[in-house]
């Protein structure tokens, strides 16, 4: 393992040195054409790469992207009433302010999140088919992001309020979108597009984490009732596919709640995703707990810390740090797995794509639609894994 | 006069003092393995007891039962007037009054040195953060590394880490300190700095139970030495008695091997 790393490092150094000192011709000779087998490999991979690139570009430039342009709003926010779109802009604005302030207040990994989101907005502004009004609003958001960044750097006192608003952000979003009697009601049944994808994913991620934590702790509990409940729950959920959980959710949740309570499809999907993801997170976190040496528990106990303090200050911070990469991996797969809700007839980003393709007006445009949908998923998944790598680096810096 | 480590130093002779630790008829099994066999020991206030014995004789297990890191099946343990039972509250009371230093330091790697030391005083003793940190800084001064307060354990040498571990235990203002081979994991050149701190602690009047293989320390600092073998105390007495005039065959054998 170690040796391989060394080897890789050496190669990297050779690459660096050669490209700067020896000149590119020499570099080519050394790295690509050093032997006959190497020459052969170089040629084959060049041909394959060229072929793939050529076809990709040919597709990109000959495809008819008007299907995306015409339906961009549908893909992004579904059939959310046009008159109420200001609500979507409002929650985006709040997000921008939060991101900007957090960027200024904490820097580090927050900077990466904020810059990436800003970059995505900038790309959208540059897209040819975006409406002028949308461009202006997005441009405004970018300015807002920078402005709040400066405010954040100047006002460290804002830390606690900003954390509070972050905690309230998802409930606030759902409140604004739904209306709940204060604003005109927009039933969650017509929520759709990428907005719905983001909503389901964020709810599942944010809520499944504390549940997963409790399950992980419960699984190690000395009380058999709690322990076996957690074991059975975790193993049961991990033993069935997500799609089954979603179907069960659609059928069983109304059954559990009785006939009096109406609960929307969207909420059922959120509950299903959350319960599913909690089981996997629990196993991740349990791995972190097990990775701690016994001496950490003993030192805490010997100091007289009770179980709650020991867990809160000594064990969990270390365990969670150790499993952040695994958890982010889990978050990414939850995000992608939200696309399964299309099967229980929700029109998330993928569901909306399917609807468009089924429309005779856009016959033969499957490729364009699904390539676009895939691209949007990719951008966000890439962003998450990028931030998690940053997070690992910055967390690792303090100790060890 | 308050001693450097804020221990109450008694001037009365050892024999006349009260017992602070009493162990009677202690028996412990790990499954079928009988690790502690009818152990009896009492420790006076301010006394320094060094526990010697071959590997696997039950020394660690013994001192770990005193602060309930290990359970025991039979016998009686009284620490600072508190009867050690299964009651969690009793256990936590005893742990407040006993500090422990481990062979492998066991500092919390995600906290600064200052946080390591002030954590328990703040949450267990309920002291104000300011007071706890001030005491932490004083203790770091006493163990000779005041400049390390804001570093992380991973940035310190082994000897420094063990001195922090001692400071961390002392910050709770315990009445008894337990040491389980505190210098065994250290490079030779760092052993002395840790033993020096322990020596000063002993001089300041702290009650100490020390498992160690450092014979120099035992001879110089111990008030009494007890010898463990196969889970029993086979001999106990002053350093002179044990080193110069051992009675038991197995004591002689052990000393011959180690000296
Ligand atoms: N958790 C445990 N479970 C089972 N057996 C144990 C456990 N801990 C210790 N033992 C056994 O109990 C006996 C006493 O161990 P202990 O660690 O107390 O010895 P020690 O005198 O401290 O030895 P050393 O000098 O090697 O540290 C040994 O035989 C050991 O293998
Ligand atoms: Mg031992």
From TrEMBL, chain A:
Keywords linked to the UniProt accession: Cell membrane, Membrane, Transmembrane, Transmembrane helix, Transport
Its predominant location is membrane
Cellular component, GO annotation: ATP-binding cassette (ABC) transporter complex
Q: Name one GO molecular function term.
A: transmembrane transporter activity
Chain ranges passing through the membrane: 35-54, 86-106, 113-130, 136-155, 162-184, 190-216, 228-253, 265-282, 369-387
Coiled-coil intervals? none
What CDD domains would the database entry show?
TM_PBP2
Show the PROSITE patterns listed in the entry. ABC_TM1
Q: Does the keyword Membrane apply?
A: yes
Subcellular location, record wording: Cell membrane
Q: Outline the extent of the ABC transmembrane type-1 domain.
A: 194-388
Isomerase as a keyword? no
Show the InterPro entries listed in the entry: AA_ABC_transptr_permease_3TM, ArtM/GltK/GlnP/TcyL/YhdX-like, MetI-like, MetI-like_sf
Topology of this chain in the membrane: Multi-pass membrane protein
An individual GO BP term: amino acid transport
Q: Which family does it belong to?
A: Belongs to the binding-protein-dependent transport system permease family.
Annotated protein name in UniProt: Polar amino acid ABC transporter permease
From TrEMBL, chain B:
What InterPro entries does UniProt report for this protein, alphabetically? AAA+_ATPase (IPR003593), ABC_ATPase_HisP-typ (IPR030679), ABC_transporter-like_ATP-bd (IPR003439), ABC_transporter-like_CS (IPR017871), MetN_ABC_transporter-like (IPR050086), P-loop_NTPase (IPR027417)
Sample GO molecular function, one term? ABC-type amino acid transporter activity
Q: Which CDD domains match?
A: ABC_HisP_GlnQ
> Would you say which domain of life the source belongs to?
Bacteria
Keywords in alphabetical order: ATP-binding, Nucleotide-binding, Transport
Q: Where is the ABC transporter domain?
A: 21-255
Cite the Pfam families for this sequence. ABC_tran
Q: Which family does it belong to?
A: Belongs to the ABC transporter superfamily.
| Name of the featured protein | Arginine ABC transporter ATP-binding protein
Protein's organism = Robertmurraya siralis
